[in-house]
């Protein structure tokens, strides 16, 4: 019986049709996450008029929704490492679709908030599992760029929400944004049929047939068989114990807290901008359509930062790129509060998008791969769950700033503080204790050991 390390086969593979299938489904799923976050900010000016909300009340509703995302991340991240990431993704997509539609039909702000909270449970659980799966199914050589490119789906969703707001919302009202959220429900059967479960799930459960099928698609020359030993015994041993406890074992405690701090800071900026950017620009004298164009530019910057940053990460490493982006973001936010030139505002907001969502896009595979493969969804989920505390605080904090009779653009200055703190936190990451996949010899030489056949 030959012994095969499935994770290493995947790490040393070359991007092909199978990787593309996983990539496209992940892009599709994460696009609705970005759409969900952006649509609240896009529809907020009209929704505030419809429900008669103050800035503080609107910020509170946004924060209540984000509490749902935090709970979803804490619950569905560890759950996925136990029952499978594909199953959890399906549950998350169902929750988001059904309850986003119901939010769009809500007769009152109370019902709206409850529906948004339940939908947010799905969004909170979706993100860490999509990231973990894409990290697991990406070739190591271009992993950072692939995962960052996948996460551009988040920004595509934000762009879609902005375009709907600019060209459709004024005619049909803010509710149309939420009605569109039902789309994933209709595609769920195709997802269940085509999307693979995680490798670690198959390995822990001794499912050699499924592993062989996947690895033969990844490496057609490998001739993998269901009877091969995919290191089932060691995988079962590694899977024992509490997934959460493992985040702090083997000298990972300092890095875990550093990741939590960095994600907290980044999501505070991301959700503060996504929720309030249109309203800030509208209060600064720009019309509704013009103010929504800033959200569009923000999303374009997010994509640019993700792609260029992913290219740099694959060459000089995650930490150098991420720390630089946090500090560039701090300078950008200070500059945003001090200029009124339209073209310069567009440029700075694009850079702000690159240094917030773009930064988080690059941090996600860094965090996921730092932890052992059997707890990667847990590590990513807990980090994002802790980061959601920053996301929860952001809408209401910015709401208080806008209610304090300050110049609206001065609110940008507040984002410089978490940007600096996030960069400092990443300096404490101890990469030598991470479980990063490594490239070695060719798979047939290094990953497959021929042993005597079992009779």
Q: What is the global morphology? A: globular
Arithmetic mean pLDDT: 83
- Indicate the radius of gyration in whole angstroms: 22 Å
Quaternary class = single chain
Percent helix range: over 70%
Q: Which structural class matches the secondary elements?
A: mainly alpha
Counted beta strands: 2
Describe this entry's structure for a reader.
This protein is an all-alpha fold and 455 residues long. It is built from 21 helices and two strands. A two-stranded antiparallel sheet has the order 1-2. The protein is globular and about 70 Å long. The protein starts with a strand and ends in a 6-residue tail after the last strand. Mean pLDDT is 83; it is low at 441-455.
List strands and helices in order, with pairings.
Blueprint: E1 3-4, H1 6-11, H2 17-51, H3 55-83, H4 85-104, H5 109-136, H6 143-150, H7 152-172, H8 176-179, H9 183-194, H10 199-204, H11 208-218, H12 232-239, H13 243-246, H14 253-283, H15 288-316, H16 318-336, H17 342-354, H18 357-370, H19 376-402, H20 416-426, H21 443-446, E2 448-449
Antiparallel strand pairs: 1-2
Helix pairs in contact: 2-5, 2-6, 2-7, 2-14, 3-4, 3-5, 3-19, 4-5, 4-9, 5-18, 5-19, 6-15, 6-18, 7-15, 14-15, 14-18, 14-19, 14-20, 15-16, 15-17, 15-18, 16-17, 16-18, 16-20, 18-19
